[in-house]
Amino acid sequence: MRQPLRSLRSTVWLGLALTISFFYPLLVTLYDQARYLQWTRVNTWELISAIALGAVGGAITLRFIDRIERTVPRILALLAVMSVPLMSFGVHALRQLRFTDTLIGTHEWVTRHGVVSLVMGLAAVLVISLLVRRWLSAVERVLWGALLFLSLLTFFAALTIARVWPFDTQTTIAAVPAATAREGGHMLLFLFDELSYEYLYDANGNVRDMFPNFQRFAASATNYHRARAPGRRTLRSVPGYLRGEPVGRITVAGDEIFELGSDGEQHPLTFTGEHLFARARALGYTTAIVGPAFQYCVLLASSLDRCWSYSTYNYAGIHSSFSVWNPVATTMILWPRQLPQGWVKRPLYAHWQRRGIAEVTAFVRDVIRAPSPAFLFAHVYLPHLPFAFDRNGYAPAENPFEQSPENYTRQLAYVDTWFGEVLATLDAQGRFSSSTIVVLSDHNFRAQTPSDEWDHVPFIVKGADQREHGDIDVPTRIEEALSALVSASSPQ
């Protein structure tokens, strides 16, 4: 039975169904958790353009399939075209229905029982092939019917685009050239995401030999061995650092971040009063922040001279030009890391990590080379996965999402290299000695650390003109120590 694509309108409508099904993970994320994407108006136009092109391409493909005379090749062609959009939609829908653990468990079982899984897969293909041959017309009707059913997602797509149309997140604040150069050291805060105390230090409280740049830095700095982050997750730790004080429980709803106040009510997270950047600017520093995850340029806009933020999911954040590829890549980044979608996501996300770190590195170096003393908070998305580096640079692990000690240590070695290169840039400017430099983290390497140690992180402080090693072995709240450090600092 041939599916009559009676008009151009119906053909485009079904082509649109294919396209919307593919973009379903992105559309759902935009509708429910847009904050994580740092969405802009340009991103909306990219998505609209990608959907339009996909609908046209899908319509042309479906028209071609409909003209295939023989039934079996026609069904196989239709299955091939529908496979990726159906997988993109179906897997994400199952995750929405809270079947994530089931999907992960199934993937792990298949991975452990490779031969058995292969035999079962071949048997399933054989059974399906026999059913297709037995009921060709019925199978074709089901496929076209499924495509027609998926076309209902078009209304959800339209609603989502209308909902995010006002969104135009500010992700940059451009630096204004200083009128005159001023002497003085910088104050540089390096937050390395998921940096582990246990992996950086040995059992005696010394930085391990495999990290020579951290080792040299720690030798003339104060090492806090019992320091605790404000929280056990990025969402709570980073606001605590930026404020210089503890924060309440943090939640996300749509495009807003909320903090649980002392009155028991949820309030939008704000940065007013004497937070770190306000105090640093009052002291005479030029202020700068860079990093992923938070809308830094929005939350701290009134206290920043320079900023760049990017999403850990939105590919457009590290791809500056307009491109219909951006929403496609973002959708694939939102896919699960398990196979078969992981075959696409793994190299793509490793490349995203490389691009993001390159942009952060350029930003940090520009700030360091600025003619006036700067207060910089650099949120570096390392050694957090994806594991895309070794000591010498970009070299993605076989599975960049496998949170093994080997992958983590391998990437931590690159963090050591990166940190050494940044310090060399600072030294070349003649400002290493006069600068205050802080190394810290938002949380421990959670996958390999007991939960009661998730907030135990490295905290290393080199003060201006400090040359002696120091060890502090008493409980320390890092946000409070940072607050005191800023209050006591001076760019002069």
What does it look like?
There is one protein chain. With 492 residues, the protein is of the alpha/beta class. The chain folds into 2 domains: 8-164, no CATH class; 172-487, Alkaline Phosphatase, subunit A. The protein is 49% helix and 13% strand. It has 17 helices and 16 strands. The strands form 4 sheets. It has a 9-stranded mixed beta sheet, with helices on both faces. Strands 5-6-7 form a 3-stranded antiparallel beta sheet, with no helix packed on it. It has a two-stranded parallel sheet with strand order 4-16. Helix 13 links the parallel strand 8 (286-292) and strand 9 (306-310). Helix 11 packs parallel to helix 17 (478-487). The protein is elongated.
What is the topology, as strand order, of the major beta sheet? 1-9-8-10-2-13-14-3-15
> What's the CATH topology name of the largest domain?
Alkaline Phosphatase, subunit A
Q: Which second-level CATH architecture of the largest domain applies?
A: 3-Layer(aba) Sandwich
Helix share bin: 40-55%
Helix/strand-derived category reads alpha/beta
Strand percentage, roughly?
5-15%
Radius of gyration: 26 Å
Q: What best-fitting shape do the alpha-carbon axes yield? A: elongated
Number of domains: 2
| Number of alpha- plus pi-helical segments | 17
Tell me the distance between the termini.
82 Å
CATH superfamily of the largest domain: Alkaline Phosphatase, subunit A
